[in-house]
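@channel sequence for tomorrow's demo:
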Amino acid sequence: VQLAESGGGLVQAGGSLRLSCAASGITFRFAYMGWYRQAPGKQRELVARITSSGGSTTYADSVKGRFTISRDNAKNTMYLQMNSLKPEDTAVYYCALARLIGRIDYWGLGTQVTVSS
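structure tokens (generated this afternoon):
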């Protein structure tokens, strides 16, 4: 199984980025997916997660109303649309895959998001 994140970069506060996570080696449409992030000196934290069908999503309070998680099962790809970015959103963002709720089975290598003030 491979998870490949893309779309990170440097953006000014108030700007937007769209992250993608392409999955291979697994039946993607059955997998629960999520985005996590880790800032320097901090623990990795959940940003958002989505069920296998895409019918249910969960967000961290810090990103509600600004970020949107989605997936395209036909393309084996998950997305994170990030709007109104803040400097505190600066982190490495990781894609995660779980076969069952409550346990992460696979991680991507991460993509850096830097928001300047």
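heads up for whoever presents: The chain has no helices and eleven strands.
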